[in-house]
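Dear colleagues,

As part of the handover before I leave the project, I'm documenting each prediction I ran so the next person doesn't have to rerun anything. This entry is a single chain, and its sequence is reproduced below.
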Amino acid sequence: MSVTIARPQSLRGEIIAPGDKSVSHRAIMFNALSHTGTASVTNFSPGADCTSTVEIMRSLGIEITRESGRNGMGDSLTVKGVGLNGLQEPASVLDAGNSGTTTRLMSGILAGRDILTILTGDESLKSRPMGRVVEPLTQMGASISGRANNTLAPLVFHGGLLHGTSYEMPVASAQLKSCLLLAGLRADDTTTLTQPAESRDHTERMLSAMGVSISKSGLDLVLEPSDLETVDIEVPGDISSAAFWMVAGVCHPDAELLIRNVGTNPTRAGIITALQMMGADLTLHDERQVAGEPVADVLVRSSQLHGIELSGDIVPLLIDEIPVIAVAAAVAEGQTVVRDAEELRVKESDRIQASVSWLNGAGVEAIGTSDGMIVPGDNTIGGGQFQSYDDHRLAMSLGIAGLISADPITILDPDVAGISYPGFWQTIEDFGGLIG
């Protein structure tokens, strides 16, 4: 299957961002481990990744109801908590699909339990590094085995007694941090984590709201073993999904888009900072708090962009958005350089190689480096036919490129966008960009 996208004359209108994947995963997992009752979760992400989390929790004995959303809103769920130690041994292997978040956070939940669990996923997921969570969990006392000397899924969890730990994280990773904090809830003593840089903090915010004793000093986190209290959660719009429309709006020559209900958590809002650094006409409206998370409506207009350098502490705050930032870099005036983003090499695809490959194929000069890319800019994106590499963010980045390119762009295997954003192609069609 394929879709072909061509630039419409204008891009004007309103978009409701789908529910945030990161918050959706955590809302289900954490409330399942609570001990005080049933929680309501609204605007839940409809994507396949979060569905993997729901199905795994059901396999572990959690009662979850789900009702599909309407009028652009996410799904509505109820989750009945069973407490930290109430999970049941599943009858079969747990399948995380394509979701690295599900796999790594569930590793912290499953570690050190007196039940046998096997966690696996699709071919892409089984190639992604899991040693970064297995090693510290093993140090905490969990018994875990896996492929390639315990570094690749499937992972087998078979008991162990968890101890508190003091761990210096080798990478700024919200998934690693969350995994160890979840394990620390059931440890016999305090868990202290030292981060090399800031990463998204949805876990800390939600655990704190659920009564967990967790504190932060600089980049250090200290968590005491704690029970969780049920909390109803309205999931904010996903900034990683909204990022595609932000880039479309500032790059198209005749655009004004209002993206509603976007989560603007400062540990996720690197895309806003980056686009504003590039000179984007981007403003926040109706800034507010929803369930402890900052939310705003984002207004973007056609802009004259210029190249920038992205490196250091900002990179973990926009790591998932770099493939679509590459689209903006292609048409910006002057050079854009991305450094310190070697994590892109081990995502659903090698996103550095894949991004550089399609840019070159569309007539855009771009050079891959070991930890990022160099895009000289001042280019017109040409047309062509390109692989999605079974990567949802790459497929959607190509879709946005099609909305601003000189000639139509055809994306092979576009359905992978449904992993995080099932309505993405329909929205492009609504704007008149889908031609085949």
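The longest helix spans residues 239-251. The chain is about 30% helix and 25% strand.

All the best with the project,
I.
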